[in-house]
Amino acid sequence: VQLQAYGGGLVQAGGFLRLSCAASGIIFSRSRSEWYRQAPGEQRELVAALTNDDNTHYAEFAKGRFTISRDNAKNMVYLAMNNLKPEDTAIYYCNAYSLVTYINYWGQGTQVTVSS
Questions:
Q1: Can you give the pLDDT at residue 68?
Q2: How many CB atoms within 10 Å of residue 63?
Q3: What is the CA radius of gyration of the chain?
Q4: Residues 112 and 8: beta-carbon distance below 8 Å
Q5: Is the alpha carbon torsion for 59, 61, 64, 70 positive or negative?
């Protein structure tokens, strides 16, 4: 199983980025999909989650600004991030908990840097 997050970059405060997570060996529609982030010197924290039956959960800082979604046909998970702030600067990771194997899988992160 491989997860690959991409789409990060450098953006100005107030800007937009959409992160993508591609998977092989796991079906997102049969998983709980999550985005986490880790800033330098900080612990990894949950950003957003999407269940297999399309329920979503967002961290307080993400509510109203970030949207997690899934494209079943492409087997992709996305994180759309609006109104980015410098404090959103972190490495963002996608995660999938398979409801078939009951194993948690992590992808490589993608760096998001928001300049003020």
A1: 98
A2: 10
A3: 13
A4: yes
A5: negative
The span from the CA of 1 to the CA of 19, in Å, is: 19
DSSP string, the chain: -EEEEE--EEEETT--EEEEEEEESS-GGGEEEEEEEE-TTS--EEEEEE-TTS-EEE-GGGTTTEEEEEETTTTEEEEEE-S--GGG-EEEEEEEEETTT--EEEPBPEEEEEE-
Angle at 39 between CA 21 and CA 55, to 5 degrees: 45
Tens of pLDDT, residue by residue over 18-57, are: 999 999 999 999 999 999 999 999 999 999 999 999 999 9
Minimal CA–CA distance to 35: which of 25, 45, 24? 45
Greatest C-alpha distance within the chain? 43
Residue pair 95/35 in contact by the 8 Å Cβ criterion: yes
